[in-house]
Amino acid sequence: MRVLSPKECVSQALAQMVLDFRRWLTPETQLLSKWRTQTVAYAVAEGKLVNDFAKQLDSYRKKGGTLPILILSVQNIVAPPDLSQIIGTHFEVKHIFKNDPLKRRATMRTEPRAYHVQFVFVANDPTSADAFASQFCAYIRLMEKRRIKANYFVSPEIRDEWDLTIFDNTLYPDRADLEETNVTAGLVEFDLAGLVPQVKSGLPPLYVDEFTPEDEKTSEQFSLVIQADLFKDREGEKTFIRIDADPATGERTEQVVDKD
Question: Where are the domains of the chain?
Fold first, then answer.
């Protein structure tokens, strides 16, 4: 499995939101109905193409794409979010990630991070493009839709979900200028922010480099633990948890074992 950057994880979360919006959408035109059911619903553009709608569409067409299509682009906001919006944990704390089968105590901190998002719905019908922007704004204004979950990598084989919040006062619907008479693009822009977890020690690092402590560098020979006992030495308990891993598939199973 390739380790994804935080920005790529945010793009994944937004893609899941697009799929949820497709189910929520009322197809008030034939073209929206087509988009709602077509196999490929969206394409991801490079963050550097934000605001360059013509290049976004050109890049999509070069890959053989057809209309209608939703083009998604995400750009890092260099300035951190306002403290009134989100506060990080800049000091290091101990934490056990729920998806870690070995329940190790990791040392971590969090960093607030904000992103600017553009959704460009490109179609041959201006009514459909405008309807997309209008309905998507209505969707985002629902309180339960303003928060999505990004599944960040905290270790090469461990991911953890963290909330991302969409700020309603940044929601901006418009039309994107493509300078093409037969193509219209409905545009929705907004900002979102959340905390990015950063593990300092206690788990295998995302990337091994010269500054990685020797005791955290995992060699391929010992990269897979096939059996581990948790809480075996805890006093006053009659059972402990045993985790087994299949060396061929990597599949893990847990069982409760009597100490006797």
Answer: 6-201, 224-258
